[in-house]
């Protein structure tokens, strides 16, 4: 095996640009690696409907893991190997996910403790665009788990503490069976600090706080009695990572990509045009009864409420639902700005004696356009930011499509 960053095998086009890239991080797994990768590749070739590549990432093994991985690359089509000098699951996932050409990136533990029949329900919502991140869960209804009481207790306590402290919506932070749309993963990874076991938790928390949809799949999971995970050390690392997030050591959310920002601006403009037309119709309809200033205030009140609701539903939908307090205060701020600007415009109109309705309408459109700039900043950076710091991201739970059988870990 090459001692550089990666050793790959040139295979068919499906390997060069697959739909799904599955990462298997390993450290000193020479005994079980070959059997697990053969089983996984066989299942993918036989039962998985999408093109795929399996990437074995050796995290600084000191045994013959790298040699076994190199042999698998030569033996099996659709398998590649990467060797890193440092340890850590997060480091392995970061290295591959950040450079993958696949549409969806995933990972699973080398022991294949999770039934492979859950793989399709895991990635299908990502490939269809329904969800952004997908996780296997051992703690949701429908999951079937075989493991010792010690690990069961630690897992449940950890996830309970996570919910109490961070108020996350996902049920199982550390099941070794996850996937994400590649573009989403590449966007989140630079903001995830941990490179070891807490990587999973931090990645999911950041995804949820950023408004991404997390899909959950209840899995069949059989504990590996030969697991080399140091439970005490891992628990300590997780608690330190949790404390870092609670004390502000991690980002609340990430800003939009330029493409997402452009989409938000386009949606904001579309809703703004409709809102402005409705405002003008109400203004001229009510001006004869309430006067220009009264008609302006009432038309703005109605349109501001509708406008804010529209932006929450479409423009900033990915950010989730804001708190009532921020929604109210944001609406008041937006309304106050619009009233101030349009009142000044009406004062100017009266001052210079403008009588043409077309000219009045044109001046009010310009005034509303100026107020819209403030409205966009307020809604994007404050009103709908609450949904990022106090996430209410959708967590979609999908039962497996059919009953699956628990399976025992096979060894070579």
CATH topology of the largest domain: Spore Coat Polysaccharide Biosynthesis Protein SpsA, Chain A
Total count of domains: 2
Main sheet: which strands, in order across?
A: 1-4-3-2-5-8-6-9-11
Number of strands: 11
Q: CATH-wise, what's the superfamily of the largest domain?
A: Spore Coat Polysaccharide Biosynthesis Protein SpsA, Chain A
Low-confidence stretches: 1-14, 386-412
Mean pLDDT: 82
Q: Determine the strand fraction and express it as a percent band.
A: 5-15%
Overall outline: elongated
The CATH architecture term of the largest domain is Alpha-Beta Complex
Q: What is the CATH domain class of the largest domain?
A: Alpha Beta
Rg, alpha carbons: 27 Å
Terminal CA distance reads: 21 Å
Structural class: alpha/beta
Number of helices: 13
Q: How much helix is in the residues?
A: 40-55%
Order of helices and strands: EHEHEHEHEHEEHEHHEEHHHHHE
